[in-house]
Amino acid sequence: MSNIKLFQDKKIRSVWNDEEEQWYFSIVDVVEALTDSPNPRQYWRKMKDRDLKEYESYPIWVQLKLPSSDGKRYATDCANVKGLFRIIQSIPSPKAEPFKQWLAQVGYERMLEIENPELAQDRMKQLYEQKGYPKDWIDKRLRGIAIRQNLTDEWKKRGITEERDFAILTAEISKATFGMTPSEYKEFKGLTKKNQNLRDHMDDLELIFTMLGERVTTEISEKEKPETFTESKKVARRGGNVAGEARKATEKELGRSVVSDKNFLPESEKKKLND
User: Fold this and answer.
1) Helix (H) / strand (E) containing 8
2) What pLDDT digit, counting tens, does each position of 162-187 carry?
3) Partners of 22 in the β-ladder
4) CB neighbours (10 Å) of residue 248?
5) Strand order of the sheet with strand 22-26?
6) Distance CA 41, CA 19 (A)
7) Can you tell me the distance from the alpha carbon of 259 to that of 240, in angstroms, rounded to the nearest whole number?
8) Which of 87, 91, 159, 242 is the most exposed place for a label (fewest CB within 10 A)?
9) Nearest-CA neighbor of 120 among 136, 101, 140, 106?
10) What does DSSP say about strands 62-67 and 73-79: parallel, antiparallel, or unpaired?
11) In whole angstroms, what is the distance from residue 254 CA to residue 251 CA?
12) Total Cβ atoms within 10 A of residue 20
């Protein structure tokens, strides 16, 4: 499970290791947050050569694949909390102590969430509330996240584990549901940045039909247990078709398209798009 955390408005990419039950953090992101360096990669490279030579034979960091700004995943130097504490010692920064406290809090909160998964949902709910989303939309969005997790868990049982393959199957569901792949849908909504999540810009009906397509796909897959990726693609298309037919019936009753070009971008960003 990878995600992005914020330390004083700086994004820190992280990934949770289920077996070790601990977070790993992108070292380059941490360097950038603590130093405000214009070239954090070069700063980290020099640090390794200058200050951390002693760890060459048993490095305190590992390479994990994390998402980049272009949407792809690349091998990235990462360290757990213990490793970061050692690395931070070599970074002269007034932010070092606040960052250590932040790390401790992140670890503590994650352990609480493992013991009580509802806390993770509460945290996500608070984030959406802070962004100004209405309560009923947030409820649907959180339910959609749970349904999506069930679907990816089912795909993993079928031997599908690569993010690229997830994207291909998701595109099959989306195209059958809405007539567009996620990338086409993002363009339709004016979402030009790689890190903009399409579902965060869907209205209630769009979220509902997204959930329907993914839930039906999960049910079919659990029932038929496809053995190949090609078979899973066909299942994804069938699940999407169920949602697509329901969408068309809804559009006929409402006399309008469910597929909307509206988004939840701040007004300042909308103005830039229209200029």
Assistant:
1) none
2) 888 999 999 999 999 999 999 999 99
3) 17
4) 12
5) 2-7, 10-17, 22-26, 73-79, 62-67
6) 29
7) 14
8) 159
9) 106
10) antiparallel
11) 5
12) 9
CA 119, 123, 124, 125 torsion: positive or negative? positive
Question: 0.85 exceeded by the pTM?
Answer: no
Which helix H or strand E contains 17, and what residues bound it?
strand 10-17
160 SS3 class = coil
Retrieve residue 173's tokens: 């569901």
Distances (CA, A) of 200 to 71, 148, 180: 16, 14, 17
Q: Please name the amino acid found at residue 168.
A: I
Q: For residue 67, what are the β-bridge partners?
A: 73
* Residue 92 tokens, joined: 């002269």
Each residue's pLDDT tens digit, 102-154: 776 665 455 445 444 555 666 678 778 888 899 999 999 999 988 998 999 99
Cα–Cα separations (whole angstroms), residue 21 to 16, 110, 127: 7, 9, 24
**Neighbour tally for 266: CB within 10 Å:** 11
* Amino acid found at 46: K
Residue 77: Cβ-neighbour burial (10 angstroms; 0-12, 13-18, 19+): buried
45-54, 140-149, 208-217: least confidently modelled range: 45-54
Give the CA dihedral 207, 209, 215, 218, nearest 10 degrees: -110
Q: Which two tokens stand for residue 96?
A: 């070092």
**Comparing C-alpha atoms, which of 85, 90, 67, 75 is closest to residue 22?**
85
- 211: number of Cβ within 10 Å: 21
CB-facing half-sphere around the CA of 219: CA atoms within 13 A? 10
Radius of gyration of the chain (CA): 21
DSSP codes, 171-194: HHHHHHHHSS-HHHHHHHTT--ST
Task: Please report, for the chain, the start and end positions of each structural domain, with discontinuous segments joined by +.
Answer: 2-115, 134-274
